[in-house]
Amino acid sequence: MSREFDPVKLSVLANAFDGIVREMTSGLLRSARSSVINTARDFSCAVLTADNQLLAAAEGVPVHVFGAGPLGEDMVALHDDIREGDAFLHNDPYMGNSHAADHCILVPIFIEGRHLFTAVTKAHQADCGNSLPTTFYATARDVYEEGALIFPCVRVQRDYTDLDDIIRMCRARIRVPDQWYGDYLASVGASRIAERRVQELAAKFGADTLVEFVDAWFDYSERLATSAVETLPEWAVTASTSHDPFPGTGPEGVPIQATISVKPADGRVTIDLRDNPDNLPNGLNLTRATATGAALAGILSGLPESLPSNAGTFRRFEVLLREGCAVGVPKHPYSCSSGTTNLADRVVNIVQAAFSQIEDGYGTAEGATGQAPAKSVISGIDERNGNAYVNQILVGGVGGPATPYADGWPTYQRPVCGALLYHDSVEVDEQRYPIFIHERVLVADSGGAGRQRGGLATRVTIEARDDDVTITYGLEGKFNPPKGVRGGAGGAVPEAWVEGVDGSRKEMPVVGRYDMLRGEKVVSITPGGGGYGDPLERQTDAVLNDLRESRITPESAFDVYGVVITDGAVDDAATAKLRRGRVSTG
Description:
The protein is of the alpha+beta class. The chain has 15 helices and 22 strands. The protein has a seven-stranded antiparallel beta sheet with strand order 2-1-5-4-3-6-7, sandwiched between helices. Strands 14-15-20-17-18 form a five-stranded antiparallel beta sheet, covered by helices on one side. Helix 1 runs antiparallel to helix 7. The longest helix has 29 residues, at 177-205.
């Protein structure tokens, strides 16, 4: 913070921009048409500076916004006639966007004739024109097989009026055109909210004050980040994991590693992702934005301090990528259809888990990953009304990672989302789609045991009520489940099978598309999260509470946690004796 800038005004303006982004978020959530946005909340809002730095992203999904600066860079680089009233549609993964399914609306904000800020909304689309009715096409061999409409930051509004050519292109190709157009209007509206509110803020404080605030806020955030890094020991480690085998990966899956270097004297952390496989002939490849966002999310999860999510903080964190890398910068025409999920989740996990090696109190365990059928894209023609539907359902969460101080959340959804996505309402999904959800329950003993327990897996049973219900999914973590740290156990593996109307049972492939028949049931079990610390150090009352709430079984309470429970109460003396014996023989 510069000496001249008033610290009270700094706080007021920081919260004002935060409030603007929250108003954008509220507006988009309440006005979007598709359930993946208005129910599951798979979108993010942000404000960038004129030089394309992330200024504010309250409750923004990390993989959406932590690497958002290049979106603004593309807008400025491609258009030399930007003016007030413009809006741009951007979903190009080979430029600054995440993947083709994330449609971004960028609105340049002019104050006193100067372009000083840019409003950004990024909303995951239910359908983006893919060759299959899914926006996560993990097995697409290239962008052509993927088939998505790609807009490399094209102008979609001039003088606050739609350019109908672009709108007609989308409506002609996307399977649910009215649903897409409703989401488009909601995204434009949210960005225009930011435009009005920032202009009102400038009218109150002055444009020059806002410019000075940006510098002061970034400097202050950078100092906070520097202070957090300076408390760490000098440290370097290469952490690794593997993504499960998918089509296009080979039989061993995808080995992934990240070299993390902490230089407290310089106040800097570097994440090097360059030593990873080349681009893959499938849809798993990460983009510049998603690789950067995943690495930064892992850092912020690994540090115990809470830091502002802006470009000032990110100045102290460097992410190294290379062109043509599966975990980095993609080369055309390799597909990035699942570039916000699979490998990105693995990057978050290995970075945040690596920090636990510093000492107790740092890092987290690994969170669960994957697109189990309970989180699949569902599509078909609804017999009740004859209408086509395509949407992602999120009726089952995955187990979140245990931290040094808290158990993992069962509603975590996935590492790249930072627990910000919501669960669908079972009743609403049953009204919208021809399905019946028989159960949504947590699975006992599925969270990795530890001093802090990993989040539990979810079991969901879905029945088709039509003859035309297609789900597209991808189980991940079946061969390489989430790991625990500092003595914590790993989470349970996912499962999925089909129960026929005759009672038969057949396992579902790891990844793909399944056409459900009327009356068939798909049973989906998501992975559990990893545990943190020795299970024998878990508070006995926490073990007892887990048992009462059916989060663990009596066998686990005794065998794993070393807690003796008699007549519904902990036997403290017997527990202490049992745990001492386990430690001495362990």
